[in-house]
Each structure stands twice: as C-alpha cells, then as structure tokens.
C-alpha cells in the first residue's frame, strides 16, 4: 500500500489519483465542519464550487437545506452559516442537507472525483480515517486542500498524524518522500496548535478571533465517523 500527498487543491492531477483512495483534508475548517455536521445528524453535504450553484440547489425547496460556507474565511452574504463547526449543532442540522462552498475544501473534493474513493478527514476523526483506509486496502493519496493554491502547514501536519495512525495498524506501507516528511513533522510536533501557529491561515483565523474553532479543529480523534463523497454528495456510509 503506497501513500502519497498532494499539497493543494490546485495541484491535483488525474494520473495521481485515478483508481486510488483519496483522503481530502482541510482541517481549518471545511472538512472539520463536514465531519461535525454529519456526526450531528446532517443527512448529507453537497459540496459545490461557487455561490450561484449553491443558491440554485436550495431554491427548489429551501426548508430542507442549509447554506454554509465562506470566502476568504468570512461568511457568504445570504448564507445561513459560515465555516465554524460550532454553528452546525444537532438542533440545526438534524435531517437537513447542507449545501456548502468554501475557498479551498470543496474545491479539493470536487477536483478529486476521478479517485476510486473519496474520504473526508481531519484531526477530529484521524484514527477512524486511518482504519477505514487500511480496510480499503488500496493505494492512498492524501489531498491537502491548502490555502489559495499554496502549501498549508495545518493540513500537512494533519496528514502526518493520519499516516502515523495508518502505520500503527499495518506495516505494509510505502510512503513517498513527502508523506515520510509529513509523518516526521508530526512525530516531532505532537502539540498541534504550538506548531500550526506558524501557518498563514492560522494567523487569519486568529485575527478573526476564532480561537474556539482553532482549539476544536486541533483536537484528535473526538469523532468516529468517516464521511465519503459519492455521486455528488457526502454521506456517512455505514
């Protein structure tokens, strides 16, 4: 089983992901939100690339949908919620469909559609993701959403933690140089917040006083589900 990493949504190439199991990570904050919403009873999440597409989907029956997302970390005008996991509580999302568009995360998901499987991961479900990937018994590509097409420290260390968890389950693993580096970074920086404070996106979130979001998204293994993208939407396949 081979493990590789793609460093941003803009760097995804079909020949790198075709017939492989892809894990999309945007821990600050899109994939953390998706995992949280589904864990709290959301029926499905429909990721889209642009605002007009999101508005068009919900116009058919507004009562069954929630509009969520951001542009450059800020809530989109006219949307119900931004990209904070704390907004997607059970009483809000239960039995609803979340239509979501974000700057980086939803782009990474949509750009990965030629993969064999697309799983949604973050720090908060890392162990569950690792177990699921090992069970699929397929070559793995971890897609870091990145930040505006650039490498992101937060997604990279999250990938390293997930690789460590995979390697704790099986030793039948061959890591690429970049995957080996991600694991090394995590092994030497296990306090996540103390390391990702150097990330550009971390500083943006701090400036917006979203400290609780940072603390939540940096927690390890507080959720046991692994959402999957399939046929245009993300669900919890049991």
TrEMBL record:
NCBIfam families: PRK00886.1-4
Listed name of the protein: Probable 2-phosphosulfolactate phosphatase
Assigned EC number: 3.1.3.71
Keywords of the record: Hydrolase, Magnesium
Lineage: Bacteria, Bacillati, Bacillota, Clostridia, Eubacteriales
Gene behind this protein: comB
GO molecular function per UniProt: 2-phosphosulfolactate phosphatase activity; magnesium ion binding; sulfopyruvate decarboxylase activity
Enzyme class at the top of the EC tree: hydrolase
Short name of any one Pfam family annotated for the protein: 2-ph_phosp
């Amino acid at each position: 089983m081979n493990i590789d990493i793609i460093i941003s949504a803009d760097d995804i190439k079909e020949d790198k992901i075709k017939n492989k199991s892809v894990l999309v990570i945007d821990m600050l904050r899109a994939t953390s939100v998706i995992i949280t919403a589904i864990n709290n009873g959301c029926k499905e999440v429909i990721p889209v690339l642009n605002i007009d597409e999101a508005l068009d989907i919900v116009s058919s029956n507004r009562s069954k949908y929630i509009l969520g997302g951001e542009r450059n970390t800020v809530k989109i005008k006219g949307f119900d919620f931004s990209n904070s996991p704390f907004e997607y509580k059970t009483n809000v999302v239960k039995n609803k469909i979340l239509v979501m568009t974000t700057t980086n995360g939803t782009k990474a998901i949509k750009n990965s559609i030629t993969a064999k499987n697309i799983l949604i991961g973050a720090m908060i479900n890392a162990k569950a993701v690792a177990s699921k990937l090992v069970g699929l018994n397929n070559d793995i590509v971890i897609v870091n959403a990145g930040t505006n097409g650039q490498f992101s420290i937060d997604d990279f260390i999250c990938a390293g933690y997930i690789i460590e968890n995979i390697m704790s389950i099986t030793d039948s693993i061959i890591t690429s140089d970049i995957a080996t580096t991600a694991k090394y970074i995590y092994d030497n920086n296990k306090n996540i917040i103390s390391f990702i404070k150097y990330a550009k996106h971390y500083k943006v979130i701090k400036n917006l006083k979203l400290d609780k979001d940072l603390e939540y998204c940096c927690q390890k293994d507080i959720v046991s589900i692994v959402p999957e993208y399939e046929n245009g939407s993300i669900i919890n396949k049991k």
